[in-house]
Design goal:
Layout (H helix, E strand, L loop, with lengths): L9 E3 H12 L5 H9 L6 E17 L5 E3 L2 H7 L9 E3 L2 E2 L4 E5 L4 E8 L5 H13 L14 E3 L5 E7 L10 H13 L4 H24 L6 E3 L7 E6 H12 L11 H17 L9 H12 L5 H9 L1 H9 L1
Antiparallel strand pairs: 1-11, 2-6, 2-7, 2-9, 2-11, 3-4, 5-6, 8-9, 9-10
Helix pairs in contact: 1-2, 2-4, 5-6, 8-11, 9-10
């Protein structure tokens, strides 16, 4: 990417894989990028190309969460054992063992890039994409709380879908699109087609009347996952953090040599000197050995050799005790 990388705020997953391949000098595939994200090493984001709807909220400690009592009518339907006994329900969504997300009623529109916290169905979507790229099994798991994203301000949001975009909702615009496709695909005769369209028109009136009477949030429901036109991306600052974490990983450190190990090596050097008719304490011994290291292609200076040779007498004495 070079200099242009500094100008970009985010890269697509293929671009991120290419960038990491260059940085680390080894092949990094798209699937690797997704796996890094799934394993918590790299922050993944989504770009809402055509925006998305959501309910945002505040994360509070579980100890500060509030509860409400469910309706007696619902309570008595749950179990005979609970009849007449209060049942308290958590206000909000439990996102982990210690925190609760309290959602606001207002529906907001999200544009641009948002991070994936990997606490809901957004994680399943990424896992599905990873399995597809690696010829793995289909992901059949489903989460009940929907998909979540996080803004750069840290605010957590639950993605929403409108009942008007649900093709199974009678009177919705999505249901009309499905109906029109059915008429065209099955070559429905004009009279029957008109009858079906008239029925939808009546259902549409009912749908709009009910929607108008409801609160804004009641016309939406938690999205099953990320929108199909949402593009997975990686922020460039997230890539830098990932690169830094890899570069700062502690390298394996050799254990310091023990006295016994050092004396053993010096004894071996003394034996080789004796075999080569070199007196370690003699004049010019260091120069002779230095020339041998040059022939070997691993030159060691006279001074370094001289210091090592000076330790041989003590090592031999220690070995012979």
């Amino acid at each position: 990417m070079g200099k242009l990388f500094k100008l970009k705020k985010w890269l697509t997953v293929p671009e991120a894989a290419q960038h990491l391949s260059i940085v680390f000098g080894e092949e990094v595939k798209e699937a690797d990028v997704l796996r890094f994200a799934l394993d918590g090493h790299l922050k993944l984001s989504v770009n809402f190309v055509n925006h998305a709807e959501a309910r945002c909220g505040k994360v509070v400690p579980l100890g500060d969460a509030t509860f409400h009592e469910i309706s007696p009518l619902i309570r008595d339907l749950i179990s005979d054992e609970r009849k007449g006994k209060p049942i308290m329900v958590l206000d909000g969504l439990k996102i982990n063992d210690s925190e609760v997300l309290k959602l606001e009623e207002t529906i907001v529109t999200l544009n641009g890039v948002y991070d994936l916290p990997m606490i809901g169905n957004e994680q399943l979507d990424v896992e599905h994409e990873y399995q597809s790229l690696t010829a793995g099994p289909a992901v059949t798991l489903q989460g009940l709380d929907g998909a979540f994203v996080k803004g750069q301000d840290g605010q957590l949001c639950q993605l929403q879908e409108s009942f008007d975009d649900n093709e199974y909702q009678a009177g919705s615009r999505a249901h009309l699109r499905k109906l029109e496709e059915h008429i065209a695909r099955d070559s429905i005769d004009s009279s029957k087609a008109q009858e079906l369209l008239d029925q939808h028109k009546e259902k549409r009136k009912e749908f709009l009347e009910k929607r108008k009477a409801k609160n804004d949030s009641e016309n939406y429901y938690p999205a099953g996952g990320l929108p199909q036109d949402g593009v997975l991306v990686v922020r460039t600052n997230a890539l830098r953090e990932f690169e830094q974490s890899i570069n700062d990983a502690p390298a394996s450190v050799d254990k310091p040599m023990t006295t016994t190990e050092r004396n053993t090596l010096l004894t071996i050097i003394a034996a080789l000197c004796d075999y080569s008719a070199i007196d370690p304490a003699g004049r010019g011994a260091a120069s002779q050995i230095a020339k041998l290291t040059e022939k070997l292609g691993a030159t060691v200076t006279d001074d370094t050799i001289r210091k090592a040779l000076a330790k041989i007498p003590d090592a031999l004495e220690a070995r012979t005790k």
